[in-house]
Amino acid sequence: MARPTKPQGEITRGTTAPNRLRRVDRWIAATQRSALRAGDRPLAVDLGYGASPVTAVELYARLRAVAPRLEVAGVEIEPARVAAGTAFVAASGGAYPGLSFRRGGFELPVDRPPVLVRAFNVLRQYAEADAWRAWSDLCGRLDPAGVLVEGTCDEIGRRAVWVALGPEGPRTITFAAHLPALGRPSDLAERLPKTLIHRNVPGEPVHALLADFDWAWATAAPQSAFGPRARWTAAVDLLARTWPVHRHAPYGGRPRLRLGELTLPWQSVAPR
């Protein structure tokens, strides 16, 4: 009998909280619907969901609203966390059909290629080279129509940055913030994914982007009289004069701007 394969990866701190990932969840639900509905049995994976199953349960609820056939698997290395998720489902009395929890890591212990892998606050503890390797490994395990969404947020989900990747590699980068609490756009630098956080230095595209966004934010300061959303929208309009900002649905447009989001093609910030 073959011995069980050891999960690939390291145990995270497990820090989590209700609604911490609401920004990325609503972005996935709005922009990735074709992927979420792909195939007869679409599967989403919440990789490294943490000490509580709450964010996996929230992902299930938010995505099933736009993709009713979607199944969700929470994947964690720590057995106690898997047991907590499994116990939650068992105690729900059948309220969450298609939601499951299992032990594993980057190898993704599921029975079919997922149409979505959400990996949030997982790769920050890894070296940059390991984060690039994890991207490659996870992209190679996606359904042909699938997407990997990998990123980082603060403890209460007010600031976040994430990258969307397909089987071919990175596609877009999104910056998202609770606008009333934002000092300036470059405050989001501390939430850059591991593949970029050490590249926020002069000469790198992501550094230039954040510097230009700060300039646009300062220039748009008079719009603060109409609220932080108006200022953010005006700043993005200025930034779009020199950067390839996604301006139209599903990634752009006023509805996404009013949520405090900015999405650009990955190549505009890819490391040199």
Automatic annotation (TrEMBL):
<dbReference type="GO" id="GO:0008168">
    <property type="term" value="F:methyltransferase activity"/>
</dbReference>
<dbReference type="InterPro" id="IPR029063">
    <property type="entry name" value="SAM-dependent_MTases_sf"/>
</dbReference>
<keyword id="KW-0808">Transferase</keyword>
<dbReference type="GO" id="GO:0032259">
    <property type="term" value="P:methylation"/>
</dbReference>
<protein>
    <submittedName>
        <fullName>Class I SAM-dependent methyltransferase</fullName>
    </submittedName>
</protein>
<keyword id="KW-0489">Methyltransferase</keyword>
